[in-house]
Amino acid sequence: MTYYSDVNLDASYDFNSNIDMDFYSDLDVYSDWDVDHNIDVCVDIDGNDATFAIDVQAYGSDTSVELNLVVAVEEGEWSSITASGYAAAS
Question: What is the pTM of this model?
Answer without folding.
Answer: 0.42
